[in-house]
Design a protein that fits this description.
The chain has 290 residues and is mainly α. The protein is 71% helix and 0% strand.
Length: 290
Amino acid sequence: MFSNYLIGLREGLEASLVVCILIAYLVKTGRRDALKPIWAGIGVAVVIALGFGCALEFGSQELTFKAQEALGGSLSILAVVLVTWMVFWMRRTARHLRSELHGRLDAALRMGTGALVATAFLAVGREGLETALFVWASVHAASDGTPRPLIGVALGLATAVLLGWLFYKGALRINLARFFTWTGGMLVVVAAGVLAYGVHDLQEADLLPGLTNLAFDISSTVDPSSWYGTLLKGVFNFQPDPTVLQVTVWLLYLVPALALFLAPVGFASGKGKVKEPDEQGSRPSKAPQT
């Protein structure tokens, strides 16, 4: 449940910040007439993301077992690729997000209503589709017949909406660069588990070899149905009897991805010093600081 809460919180907060930046900029520049197209684009993005999630869930139920495993494994790997790209992109560009969105919005204001709708849709829609795919893959990997994963996602999204509203009102300030670094690192760990489970799905679909070649089996020591087994499964997608290929892929992804993600970014040109964003010294404002 925690891993799904983290997914909902991280992805939801990115979308909330985008919405807050767009709305705050229009209000500040006196263009309240453009708010309706922005909200229309946001609404379309949310509906499409929900429809995509429903299509993944209900469409896969009509397939045979091996087809389900092949689809689940393939989409799990795709979700890991997208989420990995997302956390690295946010790690690199978080400090410039507001100015980038302002530039897009200025161009859309000059082009008209359709461009405003498209700007809001593209800004929020990417987050929505990524969230739907990664949530589906994570829930599929941690499927235990309970609604806990979906509850975790819903709570994460609700928290993100609340935080976004508080940012807009200027009632809350946190170091967003540090927040995205910590949550991004944790998402990399979650993604490693989803990747390993996706590999297992492809092995069950006979698309990858080694299904019976186990790296270890501690099922007698770590009961998957116990509270700690459930906790390990929910947070890390832990499996007490992984295959050699699963463990190999997990290590090959997690170690370099974490090392690269946690490496310093933003070296100042010519001085060799790390330039970190300063988000603690300014006063709260209507627009969230990124």
